[in-house]
Amino acid sequence: MPQEMARRGSTWRPDSYLMGVQALARSLLAAQAQHPLLVMYTPDSLSLEAVAALQLEACQLLPVERYVPAGHHDAGQYKLQLYGECWNKLRIWELEEQYERLAYLDADMLVLRNIDHLFALPPGFYAAPDCTAGRQSQAERDACPLFSPERPHYFNAGFFLVTPSRAELARFQSLLAAGAVRIGGYAEQDLLNEVLHGSRQEFSAPQDTWRPLPHTFNAQKGIRRHHPQLWRQHWHAVAVVHYTDAKPWQEGHSDHAEYQDLVQLWWRVFHSGRPALTGGSAARGPPPPAPSA
Ligand SMILES: [Mn+2]
């Protein structure tokens, strides 16, 4: 039943990604990131205790209003109900006065290597190919974008580099309102892929087409299951690991069995980082302390 499929897995609830953000902040500190982590959240998604906990991390907090996509969407067709929450990330495009460029990271990620150099890339929207090998249809599995590095046809929106632009957001909104964009199981990720793909001139001029980064900037853990050889080949170079599907902090989840080492890595990072007492000082602070025992 499609409806049941859509409801499979996690139901979103407040604070459910708090530990993810804490681990991400600590991983950035350990990677000596020179740019602060800005945590964008809707006030209904974090309790006051969670906000207080994040104020102890080296990050800045930015409450935003919920983003409601224009047009008619059947949220029941999202692969997971919580993908409906992901529309809120479009608020990033509103930050044009404050930021020339932002790197968006999902809260279920760890930064293993410094990625500051990405900010020096030529202008453009950058993302890494999505691994669709675990998708339901055979066609999607056969056409996994990981194997067309020159021109992958679909990116994962868990990580991207963007220049905020209110005009661009207004354009997204009007395309949604007009029903011009096909939104499938992946909410805002489908929108961004369709609009920035470059194959339809009414959506994007060639210079606005998304530019591929190596998948090592968004190493979805499922890649290891579906393409073990590729994972082995590139693991040493992985800059950002993405804990898609089961989250490491969901203790006892049956999916962890296969990813024990990656889950343990996540816990090591989570426990190793001590909250900075001043907060928000990742950019100028001293090097991170050695992990405590
Ligand atoms: Mn994610």
From TrEMBL:
Q: Where exactly are the transmembrane stretches of this chain?
A: none
Any one Gene Ontology MF annotation carried by this entry is: glycosyltransferase activity
Q: Can you tell which superkingdom this protein's organism belongs to?
A: Eukaryota
PANTHER family reported in the protein's UniProt record:
GLYCOGENIN SUBFAMILY MEMBER
Q: Which organism is it from?
A: Chlorella variabilis (Green alga)
Q: What is its EC number?
A: 2.4.1.-
* Family statement drawn from the similarity comment of this UniProt entry: Belongs to the glycosyltransferase 8 family.
Task: Provide an example Pfam family for this protein.
Answer: Glyco_transf_8
UniProt name for this protein: Hexosyltransferase
